[in-house]
């Protein structure tokens, strides 16, 4: 029944912990104590949270949703540079960590000294490695950052509340797109451009949408395909991309004058390139940069290294740098707060579309199995575990 | 006789223009009016300079020496992005430019309003595209920057005067090495390191020497060769390189711990990489950088693009940028003055060795032929035209 639950019964389910009768909560957590393929190393660990014994600064959270990101999988595999600490704090026999980094939570209990949260508030983790693949969590209030729940957004007069998918996938893709567009190069609204490869990727679509909201022009490069004209149309009409071209067009001398014409009409320059592909494609987008331009690399989908003609470095003063939202925000928590607020505003004003996820709804089965199934389906699209 | 002239007769020759009898000077200039191979497009143009008709801010220069740099050749070929303006100002039938960018000059006459120069002073061009392949030149005083002549260095108590080779090759290689080491990343003397490929190149040797003078550690990567141990010894003993390794060692996992041991002993990190090779070698030096390190590319001897593993950008926050001394100093003339003074100090204190050049001494033959012969020999080593 829960699998097909409508919105109202789901909300009722979420509110169960408010009941004054239940004081002990059982959390189901997907943990790993060693690294390997998720299906081999992920296990469900259950542990009790006693709501009557909260420390003054502690809060209890019910998980609403948590995505399965490629970086979460790499973390389990042990091939990701950022790793959660493995401890026995949750009563595991071996030091273990809870998987997952992004998630949306509802506060169900607050300690006596907690000022920043009330029961019913929604929150996302302040930082990475919180361990979001679990049904409940107990933590210090400072580990969480408030985002408005639908009632609060309504009270503020917003068009709509955050969806669980929007809240649960707030920290990585939209923040990556927004910060790459705003934190490094000053683009002049109404004039300047950025170019990106992987224009049809999740971050690429956010970048096009956010650029439009900020008034920047975008030139999205995508791989050629049979339905290319439909894709171009979609990226322009739905995501607000200014222009969409194929990799072949981007590398073609014959097509160059068309791009120059677009730039001329705008009165601006391509000052920023976003690269999530690498190899020849990275050289292609870097070549379109104006002198002194910056290329930011945030992914390497081709598994080829970033490649830059020497002359672009020396004679055009092109700089190539990396972008990793985790590291940037670790050193600047205020920046995360500001950026999250900005994205939430756009979502609740109905100005920004999220990337849809396939929902893996957890009922009463083994939670690890739900996550492992999500991992296995993750090549066919973004996966969200909904609690 | 001039070809084998000793130091004193050479100085006498240089002082000829001081003679009060001669007021008209004939300058021999190597010009090009179109681009192509130097042997096809370089010609000698002679023109007269009337010393009695100097503008108030003008000076007359006698050229002492001018090198033939690879970039000078590329400029003649038309494949270099910085180009001198072609004009008919020197009385040529077609708009033409004088070749050569570096050179050392002696002031032979000064206009009535010139304060910064006296007859007998030595000078180098303030900027590029002056056209240094000519025996005499007339220009505004601001086009030249004073450097001490040997008498002035002696009077200042310096160990030695600048040699003509040192003065004529001051603006590119030593400035490139010094500015790359000091202008971007703060290396802590006595601790921190830079790594460079092309450790045996002209700039590479300057970088090792200057790093030693500044107290920085250097790790020079060179190509393997039969006399590799002699080369390592030379680079350490003569140029002051801290450590010298081969490309194979730099890319070897087995050799990695040795580098880590050197770093541990120094208490420092590799914060800067200098790349003049590109391709696999650029990835190799970038991999040795500490997190947040910078790679500066100033050449591409392998003709391969700069290559950087994506993970270095994203997870180690390595930045890859270009270095072009021409562009940097164009925007900051004071920096050129300071840097030139620093290099001249080291030269005249006997603390810095210049890269020896093969001297092409001009007697009375066609000057273009001397330059063309230098161009043809430039693959076997640096060439200087001595006047």
Account of the 3D structure:
Chains A, B: GO terms for molecular function: enoyl-[acyl-carrier-protein] reductase (NADPH) activity. Chains A, B: Its main location: mitochondrion. The structure is a homodimer of 387-residue chains. Chain A is globular, with a radius of gyration of 22 Å. In chain A, helix 6 (173-182) packs across helix 14. Chain A is built from 15 helices and 17 strands. In chain A, 47% of the residues are buried. In chain A, strands 3, 5, 6, 7, 8, 16 and 17 form a seven-stranded mixed β-sheet that branches. In chain A, strands 11-10-9-12-13-15 form a six-stranded parallel β-sheet, with helices on both faces. Chain A has a three-stranded antiparallel β-sheet with strand order 2-1-4. With 387 residues, chain A is an alpha/beta fold. In chain A, strand 16, helix 15 and strand 17 form a beta-alpha-beta unit. Chain A folds into two domains: 24-170 and 354-386, Medium-chain alcohol dehydrogenases, catalytic domain (Quinone Oxidoreductase, Chain A, domain 1, Alpha-Beta Complex), CATH 3.90.180.10; 185-322, Rossmann fold (3-Layer(aba) Sandwich). The A-B interface holds A 81, 278, 283, 297-300, 305-324, 327 and B 81, 278, 283, 297-300, 305-324, 327.
> Any idea how many domains of chain A?
2
Give the CATH architecture of the largest domain in chain A.
Answer: Alpha-Beta Complex
Q: Biggest sheet of chain A, in brief?
A: 7 strands, mixed
Q: What would CATH call the class of the largest domain in chain A?
A: Alpha Beta
Query: Helix- and strand-based class of chain A?
Result: alpha/beta
**Could you estimate the helical fraction of the residues of chain A in percent?**
25-40%
End-to-end C-alpha gap of chain A = 14 Å
CATH superfamily of the largest domain in chain A: Medium-chain alcohol dehydrogenases, catalytic domain
Number of strands of chain A: 17
What is the typical, i.e. mean, pLDDT of chain A? 93
Q: What's the Cα radius of gyration of chain A? A: 22 Å
Q: Uncertain spans of chain A, ≥5 residues at pLDDT below 50?
A: 1-20
Strand fraction band of chain A? 15-25%
Number of helices of chain A: 15
- Quaternary state of the chains: homodimer
* Overall spatial form of chain A: globular
Pfam family, one (chains A, B): ADH_N
Protein name (chains A, B): enoyl-[acyl-carrier-protein] reductase
Keywords (chains A, B): Fatty acid biosynthesis, Fatty acid metabolism, Lipid biosynthesis, Lipid metabolism, Mitochondrion, NADP, Oxidoreductase, Transit peptide
Organism (chains A, B): Candidozyma haemuli
């Amino acid at each position: 029944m829960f699998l097909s639950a409508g919105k109202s019964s789901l909300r009722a389910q979420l509110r169960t912990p408010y009941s004054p009768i239940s004081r002990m909560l059982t959390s189901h957590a997907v943990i790993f104590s060693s690294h390997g393929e998720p299906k081999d190393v992920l296990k469900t660990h259950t542990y009790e949270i006693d709501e009557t014994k909260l420390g003054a600064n502690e809060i209890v959270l019910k998980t609403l949703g948590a995505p399965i990101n490629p970086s979460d999988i790499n973390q389990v595999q042990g091939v990701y540079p950022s790793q959660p600490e493995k401890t026995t704090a949750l009563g595991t026999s071996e030091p273990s960590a809870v998987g997952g980094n992004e998630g949306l939570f509802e506060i169900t209990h607050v300690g006596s000294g907690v000022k920043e949260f009330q029961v019913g508030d929604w929150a996302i983790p302040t930082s990475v490695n919180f361990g979001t693949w679990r049904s409940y969590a107990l933590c210090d209030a400072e580990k969480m950052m408030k985002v408005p729940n639908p009632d609060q957004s309504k009270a503020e007069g917003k068009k709509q509340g955050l969806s669980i998918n929007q809240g649960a996938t707030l920290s990585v893709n939209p923040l990556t797109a927004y910060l790459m567009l705003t934190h490094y190069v000053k683009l002049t609204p109404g004039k300047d451009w950025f170019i990106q490869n992987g224009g049809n990727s999740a971050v690429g679509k956010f970048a096009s949408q956010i650029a439009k909201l900020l008034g920047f022009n975008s030139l999205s490069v995508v791989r050629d395909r049979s339905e290319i004209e439909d894709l171009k149309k979609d990226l322009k009409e739905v995501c607000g991309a200014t222009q969409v071209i194929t990799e072949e067009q981007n590398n073609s001398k014959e097509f160059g004058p068309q791009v120059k014409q677009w730039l001329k009409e705008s009165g601006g320059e391509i000052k920023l390139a976003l690269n999530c592909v690498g190899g020849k494609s990275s050289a292609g987008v870097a070549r379109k940069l104006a002198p002194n331009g910056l290329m930011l690399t945030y992914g390497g989908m081709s598994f080829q290294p970033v490649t830059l003609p020497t002359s672009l470095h020396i004679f055009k003063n092109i700089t190539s740098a990396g972008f990793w939202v985790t590291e940037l925000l670790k050193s600047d928590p205020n920046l995360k707060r500001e950026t999250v607020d900005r994205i939430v505003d756009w979502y609740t004003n109905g100005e920004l579309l999220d990337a849809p996820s396939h929902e893996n709804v957890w009922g009463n089965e083994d939670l690890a199995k739900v996550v492992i199934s999500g991992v296995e389906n993750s090549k066919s699209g973004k996966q969200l575990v909904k609690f």
